[in-house]
From TrEMBL:
Pfam families: Isochorismatase. SUPFAM superfamilies: Isochorismatase-like hydrolases. Residues 6-177 form the Isochorismatase-like domain. The keyword Transmembrane helix does not apply. Keywords: Hydrolase. GO terms for molecular function: hydrolase activity. It comes from Aquibium carbonis. This is Cysteine hydrolase. The lineage of its organism: Bacteria, Pseudomonadati, Pseudomonadota, Alphaproteobacteria, Hyphomicrobiales.
């Protein structure tokens, strides 16, 4: 197989998870920030595509998620804003707004990546057992190779994160050390 074109998907790097006091913040979430910065910098240096996939909901409209979760990530709200230095920058970066866990569900992400000739995705962000797993599963279902760098994702449910990483590696793609994922983006 020839060298696949690789893109970086940063999932939910928003204030809700990373700003202390926000509704989805949890102890240890900050451990993924430096690994994600390393991935992002490798992608920026090489010109690889960076997709910022972030959850965003419409104000003043009902959303099916509210039947299971409290109202969150409303367009324009502080919890939905990109965290610190993780806002998109440069011409090789784009945003995909998602309303469910997967960055693929009801978005044009698969179409966009296919049009760009991408076949492999390095997926990083939060939470391993929810949005990362859903995105990896849908990446695989859409014909992309999902790669999850172990150090660039975590969860407030470590046992579920480990089970999800095992399933991703066994059934969908690969779970690799950070250095290997950086090399894929370089």
């Amino acid at each position: 197989m020839q060298n696949p074109r690789t893109a970086l998907i940063l999932v939910d790097v928003i204030n809700s998870f990373f700003e202390p006091g926000q509704p989805n913040h949890y102890p240890g979430v900050e451990d993924v920030l430096e690994p994600m910065r390393a991935l992002r910098e490798a992608a920026r240096r090489s010109g690889a595509i960076v997709v910022h996939a972030a959850e965003r909901h419409r104000p003043d409209f009902d959303d099916f998620e509210w039947r299971k979760l409290p109202v969150h990530h409303i367009d324009g709200a502080n919890d939905a804003a990109f965290f610190a230095d993780f806002a998109p920058q440069g011409r090789n970066e784009t945003v995909v707004w998602k309303r469910r866990f997967s960055a693929f569900f009801a978005t044009d992400l698969a179409l966009f990546l296919t049009e760009q000739g991408v076949s492999r995705l390095v997926i990083a962000g939060v939470k391993t057992n929810v949005c990362i797993r859903a995105t990896a599963q849908d990446a695989f279902a859409n014909g992309f190779e999902p790669v999850v760098p172990r150090e660039a994702t975590n969860s407030n449910r470590p046992h579920l994160a480990e089970a999800s990483l095992e399933d991703i590696h066994r059934y969908m793609g690969r779970v690799v050390p950070l250095a290997e994922a950086v090399d894929m983006l370089s």
